[in-house]
Amino acid sequence: MDLGAKLAGKRVLVTGASSGLGENFARLAARCGAKVMIAARRKARLEALAEELGRLGSPQVTVVEMDVASEASIDGAFAEIDASGDILDVVVNNAGIAGEGAALTLPTQDFDAVMATNVRGVWLVAVQAARRWKQARHVGSIINIASIQGERVMPGITPYSISKAAVVHMTKSLAVEWARYGIRVNAIEPGYIGTEMTDGMWESEQGRAMIQRIPMRRLGKPKSSTACCCSWRPMPAHG
User: Fold this and answer.
1) pLDDT of residue 216
2) Which CATH superfamily is domain 3-191 in?
3) Domain residue spans in the chain?
């Protein structure tokens, strides 16, 4: 069965959908016929994306304002989803921040901000969804967007690497714990992708040197096909 058949009519929440990979995950899900709920802090961007997808014939796109660094914001967003009468089928836990700087001089609040968004936020969103699925005995799927930096490291983004390694291990642990409820938890570890969040880093001397070490000498590009395709598949984190 192809991805379009699997997603058609499903209710999919994508966090961090206002730009980069999140925006493209939302586009792909919408083009596959899913009912997409796009969530982020920048509501104006979400509304512009929803309008565009509506013009392209997407069945239903709902804007949900959510700051994953705020538990109250996540609670409010899920309450809004509950009020719509929908129960989610898929959560794409994509929201994240970069957090650059040398470890010896990095302010503690910068480290805390990366952990609050990239680790705690992923945890809180996953738990909110899983609690509802367990109570409703509803099969659901969580896809956590980790990074190749969860497996390897580079200087200057230590908090980010730590956070993504935590997401990888979180995914494995939750996959084992929640499998009995019919809840699947997987992770994707993208390589070096040029997005709005990382553009500044790739333009630096260190970033340009890293690109030269990539066999194809270029970054990946976030891109979704104009039609639904089978190229986007979660990589199992367990099993």
Assistant:
1) 55
2) NAD(P)-binding Rossmann-like Domain (3.40.50.720)
3) 3-191, 195-222
- Token digits for 19? 């730009």
* Model confidence pLDDT, tens digit, residues 58-76: 778 999 999 999 999 999 9
pTM over cut 0.85: no
With a cut of 50, list the residues of the chain below it in pLDDT.
1, 194, 219, 225-239
113-122 residue pLDDT tens: 999 999 999 9
Taking Cα atoms as reference points, which of 46, 32, 43, 19 lies closest to residue 89? 32
**Catalytic (active-site) positions:** 160
CA distances from 154 to 24, 99, 135, 139, 169 (A): 26, 13, 42, 38, 19
74 token code pair: 């996540």
For the chain, how big is the Rg over CA atoms in Å?
17
User: What is the spatial distance between Cα 11 and Cα 134, in angstroms, rounded to a whole number?
Assistant: 17
